[in-house]
Design brief:
The chain has 245 residues and is an all-alpha fold. It has one domain. It has ten helices and no strands. Helix 3 packs across helix 4 and helix 7 crosses helix 9. The chain is globular. The two termini are 13 Å apart.
Amino acid sequence: MAGDQFPVTRWSVIDAVKSEDPAEQVRALDTLFAAYWKPVYKYVRLRWNQPAEDAQDLTQGFFAEVLERDLLAKYDLAKSKLRTYLRLCVDSFVMNQEKAARRQKRGGNATHVALDFQGAEGELAGTTIDAASIPSPESLEEFFEKEWVRSLFALAVEELRKFCAERERERTFRIFEEYDLSGDPEISYEKLAAEYAIAITDVTNALSWARREFRRIALERLREICASDEEFHREARAVFGSDAA
């Protein structure tokens, strides 16, 4: 696939959960949970001012409800984005839990991915957002959307790491990680070339390849968690800018 093209259309989670193939349904739910559990957890912590333990229970309970009430089947793509719909479902779920004045622990087979709540807490502690200082619900909606993008990119980075390992290109990933992900303002092509004893052109080529593959992987992930081609193209441009087309 050329670097400036969208990936071949793949089934979205909305299509896949309607499949008669149980394996396809599980794959879709795994994809959904992996992309959304962390934004949901952080959103519950801030929007609903929940302590970590309660937010963990609410997050697991919400995804159990997604399954039990078949919420994906009720989604109307003509009315909103999938992520907006899920965020509103989270609000409704938490409000109902508070009205019932009880915390409901759910689990078992409800979720299909391991939820690293400790890691999410570490990320949340590192944010500069103070829930008490947020002026409006719209700011938290924006926070949810940014966390959604962050989750998407984190999944793409991990998939790129595995992709590089499979092709014995671990050095390429380390160069990409150091230059594009570390946030070190002192890093340069020259320093990387010296560190790995390679030519600067090799650093350039490695970064070009890794960035292209990262973008491809991220777009493929994004396509799966959008409900339609129209939504996918709109979200891709929002995430990658006008050059996403």
